[in-house]
Amino acid sequence: MPGGTAIRVQVLGEVRVFRGEHPLDLGPAKQRAVFAALALQPGETVSAGALREAVWGPAQPKSARQVVQTYVARLRHVLEPDLPPRGRVHVIGSSSAGYRLAVEPGQVDVTRFRTLCAEARARATQDPPRSFELLGAALRQWRDPQLAELARLLHTDEAVAATHRAWCDAALDYVRAGLGLGRGAAVLAVAEQLARCEPLHEEVQARYIAALEQSGRRAAALDQFHHVRARLGDELGVTPGAQLAGAYRKIVRPRTPAPAGPRPDPPPWRGPGAGPGTLVGRDADLVSVTGRLAEDRLLTLTGAPGCGKSALALHAATAVRDRFPGGVLVLEASEIPGAAGLAEALARLTGGQAGDDAAALLGDRRTLLVLDNVEHLVAVSAAAADRLIRSVRRVSVLVTSRERLGLPYETVWPVQPLEVGGHDGATALFARRAAQVSPGFRLTRDNTDQVADICRRLDGLPLAIEMAAACLAAVPLDELTERTARPLDEITPPRRYPPAHQRSLRSTLRRSADCLSAAERRCLHRLAGLTASFGPADAALAWDGLPGGPVDVRAMLSRLVDASLLSVLHSGTGTRYRMLRLVRCSAAELGHSCPLPG
Predict the structure, then answer these.
(1) CATH of region 1-181, choose from 3.40.50.2300, 1.10.10.10, 3.90.1490.10, 1.10.10.60
(2) Cβ proximity of 536 and 554 under 8 Å
(3) pTM of this prediction?
(4) Segment 63-82, tens digit of pLDDT
(5) What span, in angstroms and rounded, lies between the C-alpha atoms of 392 and 386?
(6) What region, left, alpha or beta, does residue 215 occupy, with left being phi > 0 and alpha being psi -120 to 50 degrees?
């Protein structure tokens, strides 16, 4: 790109553009819609009429033609700010036929996805393992197979539907290929995600059942068959076809005894494991994180307190364990006090003693190190991870922290709160935990809205949702709803297992504040008095008069975003910030430890 670093474009999820590692602000929703319509067809000319249709649908204002031209001009300024207005035509070109996003194929995720799929299908017969790898790489280009943001932005459904269908086709090819290679466990998460997207597609459901069976989950495979059979009968009035019936017969037919002899031991695992149960509402995250671990040597999961970073990391480590012959080493670091403690813990975890060099002990076998809950040790964890990665050729590091480490080669995966509603997300997690403590509990037409309301009040945070559901052992659902008015005091089920900071909502949330400076805690406390969404000017007013002199507003807001205590919202009125309700409840209590003047 003339005059600067080449851009990267993402449309298979949130619509984003990066120059190097820096995201660019694409502006308000309708301006983003213009860019999205061009980015879905990179290198192809999109007519002005098609752009207007994408932005407004049939109800176009009289000024639509001029407004599209304005949006294009603004986008050109964002994409090529160093060039004069008439020279900004290298990224968004134009002709009498319309506009074109003129970027290299490798700069757009949708193009990379299509190229990888085409190569995979060309190799499917001659080289099935390589075809399988390429399909996996293609699917890792996606962050949201449902394309929720594109569906909100664009009024033309065809392009979005076709792109979603391309994901479904690639996912089905991937599952087929994996099953053919005996890799049922590797494709299980994608098979489950696809089954949720295509609940009445018989081959999809048959492949999902086969993946469950091949992964050793025979009971779950049988349950899924009976569920699909009932749904086919209720909604379509049909019985299972040949593929579903064949998958069922494979599950129930007598099994050939395994050959005699010892089974190979799995790679070693040291430290805490993922624990019992399945990961609810994180299918897409799990697919993406396990895929990133195949390519990136340092991956950090960040997110708000209680969003489930540790659970996702440990389940991902479990899923990829066979890729690491040297084993998986898990260091739960929440109670390690500092650099010396971290070095000693790493030495012991790698088989040595205090004072030994962990890098020298790891050897040359491919090993995965999980550093869990290191937000209070960001600097020393960054130094330790950097030394290990640079010294040990075949070690990969997976980190969970409310703040990224800040190393130049670090890949960051933000873990978001669970979606509320539907069959897979916050309400599903609540129902599963509630059934464990209150036998017979299930979501019904009468209580689903109430459960969803509880989950919304708890910000969709898995830790808070599990704690709330556990309260049903002692209180009815109506009373639990009332308790969410004062969650830090009223959502207090007994939790006795480590880590200590996850035994109560208050301790989980307070841990984030403990990682801040006194000035940062005072600023966070003042923000608790604002609305859920606020702008820099609101923050500046709230921070007026704080001890220590004027606050650098943008720097402080960026610091609190980095600490996962605020999230950034982009809107037509400029950048705004959002604080989760539970974070606000915790921040409101900080005045006791950081007294404010006067």
Answers:
(1) 1.10.10.10
(2) yes
(3) 0.61
(4) 999 999 999 999 999 998 88
(5) 10
(6) alpha
